[in-house]
Amino acid sequence: MAELQMGMVESKFADIIWQHAPVTSSQLVKLGEMELGWKRTTVHTVLRRLCDKGLFQNDGGLVTVRMSREDFYARQSRQFVQDSFHGSLPAFIAAFTQGRQLSEKEREEIRRMIDGAGEG
Predict the structure, then answer these.
(1) Is residue 83 situated within a structural domain?
(2) CA 77/CA 17 separation, integer angstroms
(3) 3-state class of 49 per DSSP?
(4) What gap in Å lies between CA 110 and CA 47, rounded to an integer?
(5) Which of 53, 64, 80, 104 is most buried, most CB within 10 Å of its CB?
(6) 72 contact partners, CB below 8 Å, separation of at least 6
């Protein structure tokens, strides 16, 4: 699979696709024009890049989802932790929480996630 990152422009367009999929490429041209002010060629260029990354598939003008929004951001987050913190989740959490207080609700939610991860 190609690079698993998106810039802001690709991310905005991917969100439109995830919201409307399955969707025809002609509908995406209209949505790209309406929501982003893009021309047809820009829509097709960005769509092709997103398909090359494995997020979507354009089969005969019908665009479908190959990777959900949630799966994409989960993979991207894991890659960030791997690249930035040598895969250490505790190091990531320490950096993320440095200088800020977690609410009791946040702490409870994190505890539930940790307990749930141990079960899977």
Answers:
(1) no
(2) 21
(3) helix
(4) 36
(5) 53
(6) 4, 14, 55
Report in angstroms the alpha-carbon separations of 10 from 22, 34, 74, 105.
18, 16, 17, 33
Whether 64 and 22 map to the same domain: the answer is: yes
For the stretch 32-67, pLDDT in tens is: 999 999 999 999 999 999 999 999 999 999 999 999
- What does the pLDDT look like over 81-97, one tens digit per residue? 999 999 999 999 999 88
- pTM score: 0.78
CA distances for 68 relative to 8, 55, 65, 92, 120, angstroms: 18, 7, 6, 24, 21
Taking residue 116's Cβ as centre, other Cβ atoms within 10 Å add up to: 9
Q: What are the backbone dihedrals phi and psi of residue 41, each rounded to the nearest 5 degrees, phi first? A: -65, -35
